[in-house]
Write a structure and sequence with these properties.
Elements (H helix, E strand, L loop, with lengths): L1 E4 L9 H5 L4 E3 L6 E3 L9 H10 L5 E4 L8
Antiparallel strand pairs: 1-4, 2-3
């Protein structure tokens, strides 16, 4: 699983932090998304995908890495 964040697009809504706090945080200046874990365990995949879906600005992108399928 590959996760990317676009801090310029982030609105600071915080849905990612509420959904997957082990993977995402917010900075102190503008509340923009911070990616805490670039290689999270497979057990967090569903929460990460939910966080990306819940993001109102679409600042989080999740793709399967080469040869991976999170089913």
């Amino acid at each position: 699983m590959e996760i990317s964040v676009d801090r310029g697009r982030c609105l600071g809504a915080g849905m990612c932090v509420l959904t997957a706090p082990e993977v995402f945080d917010q900075d102190t200046e503008g509340g923009r998304v911070l990616l805490l874990d670039t290689d999270p365990p497979p057990a967090r995949a569903l929460a990460i995908r939910r966080a990306a879906y819940a993001c109102p600005s679409g600042a989080i992108r999740v793709t399967d890495g080469p040869g991976q399928c999170d089913g």
